[in-house]
Amino acid sequence: MILPSRENRLAELFPEQTQIGQWVALVGVVALALGFRLFYFQSDVMPILDGGMFHEFIAAIAENDMRLPPSAVYNHTELPFAYPPLAFWVGAALHQYLGLDIVQVLRVYPFAVHLIYVVMIIPFLRGFGFPMTGALLAFAVMILIYQSFEWLIMGGGLTRATGAAFAISAGTACAWAMRRDSLALAVLAGVLAGLGMLTHLLWGILGIMFCVAACLSLGDRWGHRLRVLAIGVVIVLAMTVPWFLWVIGHHGMEPFQNAQSGSMRGTHQFYRTARAQLFPSFLTYFCIIGAWECFRRRVFVWPLLIIAIIAIIPRNYFNVSVVPNAVLATVGAAAVWQWLTEAVGDIKWRGFTPSWVFVISDWRRFWVPMVLCAGWTFFGSFSDINPRIMSSLSDENLDAFEWVNENLEEGANILVIAPEEWFSDEVSEWMPVLTEAKSLTTIQSTEWLPDDYFPRHIGKVGHLKRSLGCPQFVDRIAEDWPEAQYVYATLHVHCHLEDPRLIQLYETDEVWIFQIDLYYGAD
Amino acid sequence: MLSDPFEDLFPRRVSLGVWVLFGLLVLGAICHRLYLIYGAPLPLNDGGLFWVHTQAIYEGGLRLPAVVPYNGLEIPGSYPPLSFLLAASIAWVTGVDTLEIVRYLPFALHVGFIALLAPLMRAYGVAWSGVLLALVVLILTQRSYEWLIMGGGLTRSAGAMAAMAAMAAAVFTAWAMSGPRAGWAWAGGASLGLAILSHLEWGLTAVLLCVMVVATRAPRWSVALRGCTMGAVAALLVLSPWLWWLSQNTGFAPLGDAMATSQHSTAQYYRALRAHLFPTFLTYFAIVGGYECLRRRAFLWPLLPFLILALTPRHFETAVTIPNSVLAAVGFAALWRVAVPLLGDISGRLRPRARWTSEDFRRPAVFLVPMGFAAGMTIFGTVSDWKSDALEPMRAGDYQAMLWARDNLPPGAAIVALNPDHWAADEVSEWLPAIADLQSLGTVQGREWLPGGAFHTATNLSGQLKANSNCPELDAFLSLEFPEAEYLFVSADLGERVFDCLPGAQVFADQGTRIWQLKQ
Hints:
The structure holds 2 protein chains of 2 kinds. Chain A is mostly helical. In chain A, 59% of the residues lie in helices and 6% in strands. Chain A has helices spanning 20-38, 52-63, 86-98, 102-119, 121-127, 132-144, 157-180, 183-197, 201-218, 222-251, 254-260, 267-277, 284-296, 301-312, 317-320, 322-352, 367-384, 395-407, 426-434, 453-465, 472-480; strands at residues 71-74, 77-80, 413-417, 438-439, 486-489, 502-507, 512-516. In chain A, the strands form 2 sheets. Chain A has a 5-stranded mixed sheet, with helices on one face. In chain A, strand 3, helix 19 and strand 4 form a beta-alpha-beta unit. In chain A, helix 2 (52-63) crosses helix 3 (86-98), helix 7 runs antiparallel to helix 8 and helix 13 (284-296) crosses helix 16 (322-352). Chain A starts with 19 loop residues before the first helix and ends in a 7-residue tail after the last strand. By secondary structure, chain B is of the alpha/beta class. Chain B is 62% helix and 6% strand. Chain B is built from 23 helices and 7 strands. Chain B has a 5-stranded mixed sheet with strand order 4-3-5-7-6, covered by helices on one side. The longest helix of chain B is centred in the middle third of the chain and has 30 residues, at 321-350. The radius of gyration of chain B is 25 Å and the shape is globular. The termini of chain B are far apart. The interface between A and B is medium-sized, with 18 and 19 residues.
């Protein structure tokens, strides 16, 4: 039974029934979106960008007979296994029981799972009382937003995509639990939110936020809301507390506190986001109009979700805000379309082509705003593309890694100098996995280390990358990285031509490897 | 006056408190501008070329010069001359130094530009409360004065003057369209001519404003046609003496050269639409305002930003402050209009006995709240956007060095000025030829009127000059690009950077500014 809860005050913006044109347009949109994503799977060997550390986590579980090991080794450093483990378990199971290579798991699995996340927006919005036409329009917008897949389909998307799928599934179950007053669905929402927390903390928090939003906005009695919330809280705690206790038992609270230092929560981050990045490029116009229409109709849940996400999950804001952003853009586009058809209809009737049968009710031809909206979103996504993030480890780097394994001693200390920011530097991420060397400049995994190691290490690496002139480059190495033995560069560092302390060992069009002799010329 | 599409958004009456807040905000904004202008030894940022032009008119007995000597170049006197004539005439009548006029006249004219938004909005039937709200947003937006109060604000410097004329043209046209008033149509056309006669881009903006006013306000096509005809005739009458003078003296080719620097390009439109269509933080309110305008079928204001961008992309950010302030004001008022019943409901639930209803929020005195919020938000956005380069006063050392160079270096000597700012905000390169009578090799200003892509060549060279990060690089660059350079002027803005590898000797040093004599 569907409860006579608050009607969706946004429903009047959307036609009640879909038409064949909208479904046809949707097929085109999905084909475009899939083509857009598959374009980035150019390497048939490596996943997009990252996942190196996750590779080691999966391998550690598999080698430990599918039991959670207290720690895992990455980049010659023993890390506390405090990362939510569910996705690694799934990866290890696929490796162990189906015989899939871990690298291939990291390459394919995130892409497959992120599709669940994107498709789930349809039942999610249906749960919030949106007509099918509105839910399909939101799906078309969401699947084309760049941030709906950017960090999800890469190797590191193993946890993010799984967490995202659980988050929106939890919200969906909770919304339908509220609408149908269903205990079973409330329990299911709690289970899915718990699984989300066990997969990725930030996406898990988003799942809980979705559930709270559904309870508050769809319930018509406080007793009803509190009952569903209480069920969810109990189940989430029952599922996550054992794991928390396990981590605390092995490592204490320290790993969580260390990871918290990378959360980027700060006034400056809020300011920067509100200034320029609150919405995806070019969707800003529609998102603001959508937020305004929500505000006018006192549907506060969607604009408030944006603000709540900035406040609670600032580091992942841009990616986890995709769902409310897609909804706001959908509402904005529908509002503009409704106004536009009315205005155009009036103009036609008033004298331009009175014989044309074009009236206000033509706004029901919803394939038109769907195509316009899809085109506009795609244009914005195209503008936002960061090719450095959406790249895989190249064949030249794989060859160079092989050369490192064959020619350098095991555990050699290497400085990786790449033009990218640390989070989009796939060489630093994968070198510790695919070679026996230790990459001194790899940032990944250091967020779990104590004494503010993570921000200090980022600063130190950045300092080195800004000192590429001669002779300050080698001077900087001598001062900050005395243990370094080799430099692995994917950008031009020509110091070896001027500075005898660098000896070139390997050279291709893309990779240069140097040996460092800091004591050259010393007696 | 026609019906007001925003009558439900703005209270019809204005309370004393709103007037007081408005007065305080305007006073603060004016004082801030005067503080910037008064604290500089020369007019802010640019205006060197315009001062030379004004001086040439003044010394020529208020006749237009066919050629303006600036920076060792012969710049065609094709620049729309109205503001130069006005400045020279004031100097002629009052005896005030032309340099002081170039310093203060742009400020005075830009105040008129801002104030004229009021009659334009009133002509559209907007209540005074809405007009005051839009004026507050406009006067507090950085772009409403950044490029208008500086020396170059005399005409882009004429910009202030031209903006004023453009707004006046729109106002007169709006009044003319609201009834069969031929006089207003003639006045609108004359103002349009004055705008073109002051600054070409602002002139185009004035044409756009007038066309849009006619399109949205004319009750019948016949009225629109008659008004446009009268306006066009009046504009041509105002412009014809100058057009005749151009044909006899400089020809029209320099105007074509200047048009080549207009920055019409897809990339420019894309960039503006992506991030710069509205000032930071006003974006939210301007978009809501634009949408509310569309819902009420008040198309003028939301269309203007796009049309201004398409027509005059180079000075888009300054001209768009006019519709943006109206859109933001509508957005703020619409937000307040929706918040009022919401607040009333909340207060009713929390304090049922207090009898505090949504009607209480509608009282004119309570309009202080959205006005204060709008002012705070605009100031916050302006502070966020603040770029000090353009409005930074010239360093005292730089000015002293120019005076020393005027007295001690041979007139017309070739000099290279080093200053870290972008060429458009590089006050040293602009004023050095005007004050010291030297040939500054890296100066860009004035070359937009020269043929053969001289402007683009100069901007490229200026960029390369400023990119030299150390002495050997600079030495190599000077040898290659400016082998005729005799002197190097190092602005105090560069701090203690050392140039001791250059062949030559330092001949001046004061308050951080240095001049080198280079060996050939």
